[in-house]
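Figure 6 in text form: structure in, sequence out.
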C-alpha cells in the first residue's frame, strides 16, 4: 500500500465530516490501521481540520514514527496520557470530535472525554457509518492483498486434503492448516478454522474437536488467511470415501444455490436482498428451506465480517465491495454442506476471487 494512500483516506474522512465537527478521534485498532497503515493496540489517531496527530506510548513510538511519516507522532509518558491528550486537543483547536461509538464502552467514552478535554467527544454524528462507507470500496492494493491471502488459503487447503485419512481428528486438520499457512507467509489466520466432519457438519460454526474422520463423512473446511491486514474467506465441503444419495443431493442443491447467487452478481445484480434470495429460493424449492438459517454472505476486508451483509434486509452492493456467497444446508445430527466464494463487485459485474474447484471432491 502506498503511504500517500493513508493521507488520502484521512482527507476523505475529513471531507465527509459534517461542518459542525472539528474532527474525529480514531481509537479502534482496525480503523487506526486503515487510516495510518500502522497496526497498534494502543494508538489514538486525532484527525482534525487543523492537522492530525497519532498518540501512543513508548512501546510503539519508534515503529509508529517509521510507519506514519506524513503526520506528527506523539508519545505520552507513564501517567501522562491526560496531559498529552489535553495538550494535543487544545493545539488542534478543541471543538467537537466524533468517536467510533460502536467500538467503545461507556466507560471508555467517559475516560477519553476527560483525557481529551477541552475537546468535546460525541458519538452522535455517525462516524462509524462514514468510515464504513470508505472501507467498503477496495482499491487495487487491497484486492491484491486479499488475492494473496486467498492463494495461501487454497494452497494450504490442498495440502491439508492430503492429510485426510481414517482416524485423523478435526483438530489435527485444523492445526495443520494453521501451521502450513503460516509457513507459506500468512500474517495470521483470518479466524479460527472450522473443520467439521460427519454429524458435526450440521453446526455452521462447529469447533474442531477430537472427532475422528470416518468413511462416508462429509468434511466442511471454513478457512481463511490474512496478508497485509486483509482477510480471505472460503468454505469447501469434501467427502471421505463413498457417500449416500442424500449427501450427493444436498451437495448439488447447495452448489446450485451458490452458483445462482454468483450468476446474479456477475450479471450486474446489485441488491443484497435479491442476491440472498437467489440462493435461498433454490434451497427452498428443493425442500431444504428450514435448514438454511444464516445470511447468504457478508463483506470481507480488514475484518472477516464487515459491511455489507448479504441478507433479506437489503440495500445496494457498493462498487468495490468484496462479499462472500456461502449458502448451506445443515441437517441436525446427520451432516452439513456449505460452499463459499468471495466476489468483488465492479461497475457492471462481479469478479470471483476464489479459484479452488467447487466440484464434489471425494478423497
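Output sequence:
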Amino acid at each position: 500500500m502506498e503511504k500517500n494512500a493513508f493521507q488520502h483516506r484521512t482527507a476523505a474522512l475529513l471531507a465527509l465530516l459534517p461542518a459542525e465537527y472539528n474532527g474525529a478521534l480514531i481509537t479502534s485498532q482496525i480503523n487506526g490501521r486503515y487510516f495510518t497503515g500502522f497496526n497498534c493496540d494502543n494508538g489514538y489517531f486525532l484527525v482534525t481540520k487543523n492537522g492530525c496527530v497519532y498518540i501512543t506510548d513508548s512501546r510503539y513510538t519508534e515503529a509508529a514514527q517509521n510507519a506514519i511519516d506524513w503526520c506528527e507522532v506523539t508519545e505520552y509518558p507513564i501517567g501522562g496520557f491526560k496531559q498529552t491528550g489535553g495538550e494535543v486537543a487544545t493545539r488542534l483547536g478543541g471543538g467537537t470530535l466524533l468517536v467510533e461509538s460502536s467500538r467503545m464502552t461507556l466507560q471508555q467514552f467517559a475516560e477519553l472525554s476527560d483525557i481529551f478535554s477541552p475537546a468535546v467527544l460525541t458519538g452522535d454524528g455517525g462516524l462509524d457509518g462514514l468510515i464504513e462507507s470508505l472501507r467498503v470500496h477496495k482499491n487495487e492494493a487491497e484486492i491484491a492483498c486479499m488475492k494473496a491471502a486467498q492463494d495461501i488459503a487454497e494452497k494450504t487447503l490442498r495440502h491439508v486434503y492430503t492429510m485426510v485419512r481414517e482416524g485423523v481428528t478435526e483438530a489435527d486438520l485444523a492445526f495443520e492448516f494453521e501451521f502450513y499457512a503460516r509457513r507459506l507467509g500468512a500474517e495470521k489466520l483470518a479466524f479460527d478454522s472450522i473443520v467439521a466432519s460427519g454429524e458435526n457438519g450440521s453446526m455452521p460454526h462447529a469447533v474442531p474437536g477430537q472427532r475422528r474422520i470416518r468413511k462416508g463423512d462429509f468434511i466442511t473446511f471454513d478457512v481463511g488467511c490474512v496478508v497485509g491486514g486483509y482477510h480471505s474467506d472460503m468454505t469447501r465441503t469434501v467427502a471421505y470415501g463413498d457417500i449416500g444419495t442424500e449427501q450427493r443431493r444436498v451437495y448439488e442443491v447447495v452448489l446450485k444455490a451458490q452458483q445462482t447467487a454468483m450468476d446474479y452478481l456477475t450479471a450486474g445484480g446489485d441488491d443484497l436482498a435479491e442476491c440472498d434470495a437467489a440462493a435461498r429460493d433454490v434451497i427452498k424449492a428443493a425442500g431444504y428451506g428450514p435448514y438454511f438459517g444464516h445470511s447468504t454472505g457478508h463483506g470481507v476486508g480488514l475484518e472477516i465480517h464487515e459491511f455489507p451483509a448479504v441478507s433479506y434486509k437489503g440495500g445496494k452492493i457498493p462498487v468495490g465491495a468484496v462479499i462472500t456467497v456461502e449458502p448451506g444446508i445443515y441437517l441436525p445430527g446427520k451432516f452439513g454442506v456449505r460452499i463459499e466464494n468471495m466476489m468483488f463487485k465492479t461497475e457492471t459485474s462481479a469478479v470471483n476471487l476464489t479459484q479452488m474447484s467447487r466440484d464434489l471432491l471425494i478423497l
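Caption detail: The chain is about 35% helix and 20% strand.
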